[in-house]
Each structure stands twice: as C-alpha cells, then as structure tokens.
Amino acid sequence: MSAITPTDTKPNGPVAAAFIAAGVGCMTLGLIVVLNEAKVIPSATLDFAKNYGIGSGVGPLSGKVIISTIVFLAMWGVLGFIWRRKEVNFGRAITVAVVCLAIGFLLTFPPVFEIFAAD
C-alpha cells in the first residue's frame, strides 16, 4: 500500500466555488428583498406564480427565490469552470461565503429590510 501524495488529491476549486456561490445566492435573496421593500422592484414583477405559473401559492416570494437560485447556479458554473483544476485558498473562500451568507440573512430580517421600505 502506498502513501497518498499531494498529487493524488483532487483540487478544491470546485468545492470552494460551490460555497461562494451559495453565499452569493443568499446575498442576492437579501438584496432582492431590500429592493422590493424600497419599491425599486415592484412585487408584481416578482410574482412568478401569477406571471409565469411557477411556484403556485407562494406569491412574490417565488420570483425572489427563483432569481436567487439562478444567480447561485450561474455563479457556481462560472467559478466551478474557472477553478476546475485549481487549488484555491479554502479558508478565504469559506470566509467570503460566510460573509455573503451573513449579509443575505441580515437583509432578509424584517427590522433591517423595513428600514428601506418606501412609504
């Protein structure tokens, strides 16, 4: 049995890409919530259930989540392709992902997004 050498391991770029993409997707959801509350994006535009028949029964949340999911998938695809054979600083990637996740969570918290609400 031979020992595992560094050349026997797979690069961590695709995994780091998935973590960062998840954080960016969460942050996108938070930004969309704030923009909707500020009336920059009207609720009727985000009601994919009514406009496109996707996410019936969810209302305007359907558009917010679908757009955020598309951003996640696009970011994951782009970063995953760029980093497919690369070894990246995983600690930095996790830090970026956690910061984006925290921002996204914060922006979806009612006391925060209501600050931006248009009267």
Overall description:
- There is one protein chain.
- The chain has 119 residues and is mainly α.
- It has 6 helices and no strands.
- The chain is elongated.
Which regions are unreliable across 5 or more consecutive residues at pLDDT < 50?
Answer: none
Q: How many strands, which pairing sense, and closed or not: the largest β-sheet?
A: none
Query: What does the average pLDDT come to?
Result: 89
Q: Quick one: how many beta strands?
A: 0
Helix fraction, binned, reads 55-70%
C-alpha termini separation: 70 Å
β-strand amount:
under 5%
Q: What is the CA-atom radius of gyration, in angstroms? A: 18 Å
Shape: elongated
What structural category characterises the helix and strand content? mainly alpha
Concise summary:
This protein has helices at 13-37, 43-46, 48-52, 60-82, 90-107, 110-113.
Based on the model shown, name its key terms.
119 residues, mainly alpha, 6 helices, elongated
Summarize the topology.
Blueprint: H1 13-37, H2 43-46, H3 48-52, H4 60-82, H5 90-107, H6 110-113
Helix pairs in contact: 1-4, 1-5
